[in-house]
Design brief:
The chain is α/β, with parallel strands linked by helices.
Amino acid sequence: MDLNPHQVDAALFAFSSPLSKGALLADEVGLGKTIEAGLVVSQRWAERKRCVLIITSSNLRKQWHQELSEKFFLPCMILESRSYNEAIKSGCFRPFDVKDTVVICSYQFARNKAADVHAMPWDLVVIDEAHRLRNVYKPSNVIANTLKQALAQKQKLLLTATPLQNSLLELFGLVSFIDEHTFGDLKSFREQFANLAQDRVFHVFKERLKPLCHRTLRRQVTAYVSYTRRLALVEEFTPSDGEDRLYELVSEYLRRDKALPASQRSLMTLVLRKLLASSTFAIAGALSSISQRMRAKLKKHQVQPSLEDDLGQDYEGLDATGEEWTDDEPLESLTDADRKAIESEIADLDEFARLATSIEHNAKGKALLKALGVAFAKAEELGAAPKAIIFTESRRTQAYLLRVLADSPYADGIVLFNGTNTDDRSKQIYARWIQRHQGSDRVSGSKTADMRSALVDCFREEGRIMIATEAGAEGINLQFCSLVVNYDLLWNPQRIEQRIGRCHRYGQKHDVVVVNFLNRKNEADQRVYQLLSEKFKLFEGVFGASDEVLGAIESGVDFEKRISAIYQQCRQTEEIKTAFDQLQLELNLEINETMSQTRQKLLENFDDEVREKLKIRDEDAKVYLDRFEQLLMRLTRHELNGSAEFLNVSSFRLKSKPAWADGRAVPLGRSRPRAGMLAPVAGSGPFRHERQRVQSWNTSLPHPQ
């Protein structure tokens, strides 16, 4: 891992005061706040303060797990309803209390288990996407207030790129979450800081913030971090008459009052609309699932399959979306009239499913082949490798795309990636990978983690196209790929940013081409794309979505609800236009330019001042790394005494296997310790690096047990 000076600077800021109750790290998007937090957690770990909790959005849990495990060698576990309940059943009545393990959970889960969270003696709590807590001063923000009480008196590290969006009260909320005494109560804050136009008031406010809030901008670190651009490519398509008819029939069905169970209606409607837009194969399976569920409902003594579980088998984003979704209405009992309506509904569903199944080719699937030809040509023009990742929200659509590509010039080098990876192709890749890395540290022992590593390695070394569901949008790094294809048009800007961020991230050497598909006949789809492209600026430019815009919506799921409501309520072109105009107006009001200017004055330092400080940090870091490398070489000489010939101060030739290698295969030859790859990681003291040196050697020597 290459540390950048701004990340070291942020971590040092978090340690700056031993009396501090926490800190707010507010670097702009893309500067590595996760790495900054990892440095802080590692330092606490080395101090034997190992009771650590990470709270993040549900779709970022795996990414945190991977970053802390692979970059900092920290043992982690994701705690969710299933693992929590299993722990309780096995007799562990404090599931959050896991020795020497960083616990990672979602906001919703932490809120639901607030009593458990409060009971733990946390040494550090890291809260990602902390802008969700900005309105904690409002009693209506239940999650923020519940977490504030549960984490009172605990040291907290808050991470957000958008600490101030619409009101100074948001900064008050975030700071009070860390330390209630900084600004006092809400009434006192309003009285003191009502008029920031006065220089004295502004100065006092800024000085109060200074010990708690740290922010670096992307333009201030260009000497250390290079950024490539995003290039947008739109491929339009025209659905066939059969596809059009299916879309209209299912859309009308979803607008019926009794179409779905009341307690799941709005969430399930959104999922079905997404599957309908994905492919006829995806919606055919979903319609069959609903029909089977309704048949079971009519049979009084038959257990009903959960519609959520059925759809979740295909639409992998359901769990993450559902965690942030509140039920609409309580469950309803079944009347005689309901039973007759259900019988009629089953007949309709079966008819829709037959129509969907009869459509063998999708217009968008054909458009994909055309788009790939254009996009690969563009990648070649940019000097990039001919590799593409295609994202879809549905596993059934993933299977359809595999069939489409198998009969095309792109048949060779296809890798599938989803939540289970149980297909024969993936199993073969995994088996070859295990055989290749047997006995090395690449094999973690977790089949899920190793399968993901195997598929990514295969895509990097042999693959040309990876077809991924939402499982591929988190926790994997694909800097070696510079072509992102959004086969399905997402409505959640944060998830789109996450998808593109797999490739457009630190380490990417080429401009990234982002392909989207647009239905010429669907006015709502066109307006959604326009909003995402022009307002959120997701598909073009250097930095992708701006902090102001992504921060304005607070929750991507909430934004999806607003989009879904338009699809549900608006039938005519004029209605759709009016509804999206209103949504755009609301966004304009939420993106407060005045507050943006206030944030710049309050939280951002002069560029030259920051650059000079980072230059000093960089020079200091190099001095420490040089010293560390010398210490590491001395340790290496001790461990390999008699087994290696040391050629100079930084390299050696391994002549024979060390006695502590325990019979494992160790490649002989020339190598050198690489201190720059070692972070100040977990351990019982400053030299747990003895345990981690295998990661630092080119020859991947195993360490003594």
